[in-house]
Description:
The chain is an alpha/beta fold. The protein has 15 helices and 19 strands. It has helices at 3-20, 28-55, 93-100, 114-123, 153-159, 235-245, 250-264, 267-270, 290-293, 303-328, 372-375, 401-409, 423-427, 491-507, 552-568; strands at 67-73, 103-105, 108-109, 163-169, 188-192, 203-206, 209-215, 218-221, 273-278, 335-341, 379-382, 390-392, 396-397, 437-443, 448-453, 456-461, 532-536, 589-593, 605-609. The strands form four sheets. Strands 8-5-4-9-1-10-11-2-12 form a nine-stranded mixed beta sheet, with helices on both faces. The chain has a four-stranded mixed beta sheet with strand order 6-7-19-18, covered by helices on one side. Helix 7 packs parallel to helix 10. The longest helix has 28 residues, at 28-55.
Amino acid sequence: MTRRDKAGKEEEERHMADGINCCPGISTQGKYYILLFLCILIVIAVTLSITITFLNGKDNSLDGKPHILLVIADDMGHNDIGYYNNQSDISTPHLDQLAREGVRLDRYYGQSICSPARAALFTGRYPYRYGLQGARPILYGALKGLPLNEVIMPQILKKTGYYNYLVGKWHLGYSKWDYTPIKRGFDYFFGMYGGFADYRAHLAAEPDSPDVQVFDLHEHHKKDIRSDGTVEETEQASIDLIKSTWLHHSEKLFTDKAVEIIRNHDSKEHGPMFLTVSYMNPHSPLDPLEEDIDRVPDSVDNTIREKFSALMVGMDMGVRQLTEALKARDMYDNTIIIFTGDNGGAVQGKDQSKSLGGTNSPLRGAKWTIWEGGVKVPAFVRGPGIVPGVVSDELFHISDWLPTIAGMVGAEVKQNLDGFDQSGILTGTANNTDRKDLVLELDPAYQQAAYIKDNFKLILGDPAPKPYNGIYAPLEGDEVRYPDLDDPDSFANFNKDLKEKLTAYITKSDTDKSFDFRDLPEAIGPFEHSSIKLYDLDNDPSETDDLFTKSERFKARAKDMYDHLAVQSQELADLIFYIGDNQDKTSSVKTLTIPGGLTDWTGTEMGKWTPWLRDDTESK
């Protein structure tokens, strides 16, 4: 010790003694204890202050249930996420990291198109149970939606104490307020009623009238529900929403709104959070943010694929912001995060020479089809209790989420489900799934069906219109390549053919619509019909080797699967059609006058999609 240090120590001891001697009549030892007690009080006070500061803005959940964040991608192909994309033209590092933290589902199926996929997700039941099967989305102006007797995920979670939010795409009907999210169990909704709209102007075309663009963005709170069941939506509120969101990209709007919800959610007041963020990314029209284009890998030199890739990058960055918001509230470790696609990637639009940027390679087919490329999509889940670093090849369908989530949070499900509780696979308490088969499609109008049992897949009827039968490799130019097609039909002819089939089905008598295959030999049956296909998905994931006619053993297996579908066909619900008298092309548009107009908008009037039928109106 230096002299300076020694002198300082003596000075410090002298001041300490002076402090102790300030209390005459108390022993030196007692004064030390008093000083020690005061120091302890100071430490406790500082600790409390730090704790209060730390907890300010943190999650204050008391009931122990996990929060749930459900993220849905729109038209994301099998090969359109980083961990599958071996061409390195898609970069999704944040999604990839989340997948590594939990269970990646490598044998996961959605549906062939968006409305049926979202219906199966929220109901836990196959779409053919309630008439939403087939490649038929619910279009703008449709009179029907997801049937109201279906009890859906947010309604079930609400009974368990969850507070439910939906941000983004709904696409399950809106002709009546009863069909809309705020009347189906969600406490808050900010997003779109329909299938897709312009990313920046949020405009969607009227059916068959592409020149008539109508605004589709809405914000509703549970408190907005009136006593008569309608939802308060003033003209001024609609105008304010249009003006505040005009030319703001929906990817950013949806992410920012979801982050705001996470930051403000009060678990003590509302209970645990169920937040669904349903992005439109990477659905067409391909219009990404410029900043997302800059993040696309340099290897991408194709304009269309670059735009598509940028939309995936943007969603990946959005999910990063959501997880950062969860971590800032200390909610991350107590949040189940589920990521899922809805259907396979879209490879081309109405002009069949132009790509829509997606690729499902090496799987055959695309969105709209029952080939693997149309229904097998990326998905994963991570969160409390879920085993990290697992890649599962157990069969999993999008309808399994409802019973699985219910099983993990202790929610009671009373209705009969097609989905299976897969929580055992996710938590490591079970080695194998109870799901051994899957009815992918059962559609009498389009005369097609698909059924998976073990490693075999049976296809009845035409699995796809011809332009979608290919295996679409990563694109080398803006044009789609057709590796196995000789003379592809045009998209227009495809639509014409499907509408003719649907119209013919509608005009049949009710007794002709049972879809017992052997009662409809002119459609898919009888069993010997050449439209039956059988594939071994373990050895032929690209569905190029049809086994049906190769041996009696395969034919016998196909027969067993065929008979199962014949039984299931007796449980078909009436179809929810999207043509003919199930569309109203004018009543669903409310005209608003916007003072001063909008940038890049001619005139001052704009239409807005909104419910137009009374909730007591019977939709037949």
